[in-house]
Design a protein that fits this description.
- The chain is flat.
- The protein is mainly alpha-helical.
- It contains seven helices and three strands; from the N terminus they run αβααββαααα.
- It is 72% helix and 6% strand.
- It has a three-stranded antiparallel β-sheet with strand order 1-3-2.
Length: 190
């Protein structure tokens, strides 16, 4: 369909294109409008509304200009990529300085690895004795205090509910304990 615009270098209305396209280019008459709209959406054909009519046009110079612009953009991307590649190569060469594979370097790397292994082993051994760490013991003591306070609070709550139930429903303690599954020896912790 682009050939219709390029050959005639003219402006068309939709009804004109619907007459010309099937005859000259063999495009199915029912698809002309869809094809034209897709060309407009792709910015290959220009469309402008004048009054109540839509006018469509595309000139070869615009397509050439668009291709040149795309080519320049791609060339810029290539040059940027080449420049980035050169910068990375320089960085790699700079990083290699001082890292040549010598006997001294290999012995230092072995020593470093053995020190890392020893550190890992010592950390594992330290983890074994963590339970005896004074800080950990202090944390356990603090959490025990908090837990005892929580137990006392819940015990208070149970006794308060028992008292309320006793007053409200006139039940004796053994019946309340049996109904709520409270053990006979239930009391505050020491």
């Amino acid at each position: 369909m682009m050939e219709i615009f390029f050959e005639s270098k003219d402006v068309f209305q939709l009804k004109d294109i619907e007459k010309i396209a099937p005859k000259s280019k063999g495009i199915a008459p029912m698809t002309v409008k869809e094809v034209l709209q897709s060309l407009v959406d792709d910015n290959m054909v220009d469309c402008e509304r004048v009054g109540t009519s839509n006018y469509y046009w595309a000139f070869p110079s615009k397509a050439l200009h668009a291709r040149k612009h795309k080519l320049e953009e791609l060339q810029k991307q290539v040059s940027d990529a080449k420049q980035r590649k050169a910068t990375l190569k320089k960085a790699v060469e700079k990083a290699k300085v001082g890292r040549e594979d010598t006997k001294e370097r290999s012995s230092l790397l072995k020593e470093l690895q053995s020190l890392r292994d020893e550190r890992t082993q010592l950390q594992a051994e330290l983890e074994k004795y963590r339970e005896c760490d004074p800080e950990v013991i202090e944390q356990i003591r603090k959490s025990n205090v908090v837990a005892k306070e929580a137990v006392s609070r819940w015990t208070d709550n149970v006794f308060a509910i028992k008292s309320w139930t006793k007053k409200k429903f006139s039940f004796d303690d053994s019946r309340i304990d049996k109904a709520f599954g409270i053990p006979e020896d239930f009391d505050y912790m020491d």
